[in-house]
Amino acid sequence: MRDYFYSLDARKYYNDLEKNQKDMFLAFKNFNSEVFEKTSRLSRKVKELIAIGVAHTTQCPYCIESHVKAAKNAGANDQEIAEAIFVAAALRAGGAFAHSTISMGVLKEMDSPLREI
């Protein structure tokens, strides 16, 4: 991948994170490996497509790059990767749509003759 808002060389600081909390760092790495690399009910390809959707939701450029590469290596094609991205986009849009009820409720309350001033 080319340039990010987040510098790719910032990954060098993972070493500092590991140095300062080695047990937690290793626990995270082991957990991540257990989830993605262990044979389980979901194929690696499916796990990586889920990760692509989540990465686009959290908007982590490092996760997007690594999981797209991993998905491709696990056999996902470009159309499947694009579909995972659109699933994530639909969920984010759905969240905004669902939360619109808060705004509409506030407007209704403001229009109510019984509203407190």
Protein described:
This protein has helices spanning 14-20, 22-37, 44-58, 61-73, 78-111. It starts with 13 loop residues before the first helix and ends in a 6-residue tail after the last helix. With 117 residues, it is mainly alpha-helical. It has a domain at 39-111: AhpD-like (Up-down Bundle), CATH 1.20.1290. Helix 3 packs antiparallel against helix 4. The chain contains 5 helices and no strands. It is extended, with a radius of gyration of 20 Å. The longest helix is centred in the last third of the chain and has 34 residues, at 78-111.
Keywords, separated by commas or semicolons:
single chain; 117 residues; mainly alpha; AhpD-like
Short description:
The chain is mainly alpha-helical. Helices cover 73% and strands 0% of the residues. The longest helix is centred in the C-terminal third of the chain and has 34 residues, at 78-111.
Spell out the blueprint of helices and strands.
Elements lengths: L13 H7 L1 H16 L6 H15 L2 H13 L4 H34 L6
Q: Strand pairing plus helix content: what structural class? A: mainly alpha
| Rg, Cα atoms, Å | 20 Å
Largest sheet: none
Low-confidence stretches: none
Shape: extended
Give the percentage of residues in beta strands: under 5%
Fill in the CATH topology of the domain at 39-111: AhpD-like
Annotated CATH architecture of the domain at 39-111 = Up-down Bundle
Q: Report how far the terminal alpha carbons are from each other.
A: 54 Å
- What is the helix tally? 5
Order of helices and strands: HHHHH
Mean residue pLDDT: 91
The CATH superfamily title of the domain at 39-111: AhpD-like
Number of strands: 0
The proportion of residues forming helix, as a percent range, comes to over 70%
In the CATH hierarchy, what is the class of the domain at 39-111? Mainly Alpha
